[in-house]
Amino acid sequence: RKPEFDVAVRPAARVALQDEDASVxxxxxxxxxxxxxxxxxxxxxxxxxxFSPLRYDSGDDGDEGGGYAGGDEQFEGTATLKADGTAEVxxxxxxxxxxxxxxxxxxxxxxxxxxxxxxxxxxxxxxxGRFLVTARGERSVYATGETAGVTVxxxxxxxAGRANVRVHLALERVEYRSGGxxxxxxxxxxxxxxxx
Length: 196
Hints:
Layout: E1 5-11, E2 15-17, E3 20-30, E4 40-49, E5 72-80, E6 86-93, E7 102-111, E8 117-127, E9 132-137, E10 150-155, E11 165-175, E12 183-194
Parallel strand pairs: 2-8
Antiparallel strand pairs: 1-3, 3-6, 4-5, 4-7, 7-8, 9-10, 11-12
């Protein structure tokens, strides 16, 4: 049977900090306008790798693009839609054990009184910190003895600069060897405060 209602999943924020809860509104409405009142909704959070485009392109507007391609299920819950066809739920965003950001896909499956099931979904970017740090060299190849110019920025997940951020920089030499792991040698270190 074709679906007779639509399900919308609306996180309160597009970006949220890990180890906190994401607030989410789930809404279902029949195509003829009435809310799907009293329906049962099952919702799950699935975790997928996420790499902010702000790390790679300083001119990016922060739209991560792409679509959802599955992930590991992290959480499952159930709720009942109110008379207006909505349910307010919270979804825990667990702390990533490797200290990495991830995309949390929230999928809601609503089953109405006649047994029809319709799904809807949305994403929340779960960040390990409140900002990220980018480093870009003026170019990718330098001659021995040349000074390398590097621009370091701290930005929030909307792309706005963060001032007064203390960073520790390290220059590492990476030697790739046949049949083994690369050898990394740290040669110079510097601590600085970013102004913007």
